[in-house]
Amino acid sequence: MPQIKQNDDSSIGMEGSAGGKGGFVPETIVYNASTVDTPFFVADRPYVVQGIRGRVEVAGTGGACTVQIRKVPSGTALTSGTVLHSGTFNVVGTAATNQTLTLSTTPSDLLLAAGDALAYDLTGTPTSAVGAITVTMNPA
User: Fold this and answer.
1) pLDDT one-digit tens code per residue, 45-58
2) What is the rounded distance in angstroms from the CA atom of residue 137 to the CA atom of residue 133?
3) 13-28 pLDDT, tens per residue?
4) How far is CA 114 from the centre of its chain?
5) In Å, what is the CA distance from 46 to each residue of 5, 8, 116, 136?
6) Which of 6, 64, 119, 121 is most buried, by CB atoms within 10 Å?
């Protein structure tokens, strides 16, 4: 977990317990109807996922379509990764509306090791869908 520290200029800041600067690190995937299952971030150090929020800008029209955000270690198939939340992001949800996903209650699910990827895992047909999903993390 990040810790409070005194910066060189005497201000207060944050750092991860493994060293380095803390603070929040947002990673966003912007999707459209042609976006396929894909990794969108590879961790350069350990991180803790703090939140997942997305916005549907144009709702898909191809029927039910959802996304799961997964933690995927190197050498693991994207669809075999760990889902970071309960429920799913609804790609055919209400346009111009945010959705906040409920994080997993298992702490180890939310800890990314260096080399782990965050991945976008789509189920259904996102015809005409446009939006973005952001995962917010802290250095661990």
Assistant:
1) 999 999 999 999 99
2) 13
3) 666 665 555 678 999 9
4) 15
5) 19, 24, 9, 13
6) 119
Interior angle at CA 132, CA 90 and CA 41, nearest 5: 110
d(CA 97, CA 6): 39
Which contacts (CB < 8 Å, 24+ apart) does range 107-111 have? Answer: 109/71, 109/82, 109/83, 109/84, 110/48, 110/49, 110/71, 110/84, 111/46, 111/47, 111/48, 111/49, 111/140
Domain 24-139 has CATH 2.60.120.340: yes
What residue segments make up the domains of the chain, in order of their start?
Answer: 24-139
Structure-block tokens of residue 7: 């910066």
What is the number of other CB atoms lying within 10 angstroms of the CB of residue 5? Answer: 12
* Mean pLDDT for the chain overall: 91
Q: Which residues contact 23 (CB under 8 A, 6 or more apart)?
A: 2, 13, 14, 138, 139
- Say if residues 50 and 137 touch (Cβ distance below 8 Å): yes
Give the integer Cα–Cα distance in Å for 59 and 108: 33
